[in-house]
Amino acid sequence: xxxxxxxxxxxxxxxxxxxxxxxxxxxxxxxxxxxxxxxxxxxxxxxxxxxxxxxxxxxxxxxxxxxxxxxxxxxxxxxx
Length: 80
Known about the structure:
Layout (H helix, E strand, L loop, with lengths): L3 E6 L3 H8 L11 E6 L4 E7 L2 E8 L2 E5 L3 H11 L1
Antiparallel strand pairs: 1-2, 3-4, 4-5
């Protein structure tokens, strides 16, 4: 089975509660956690605060990686 590991922006419980209330938490790009993906439906570029990010679409969930879109695309082509 093919896999790819990417650093994903990580929200703590407080951030999740704010988001549930419709308040966008301030993202801290230093808070990441590596996540291993075995199935990715799609990727899309995302730009926030001048930073190039990648949205990973996997099984009806979205994850934001700090790795730029073109780099993720390159890694996926190499691994799949």
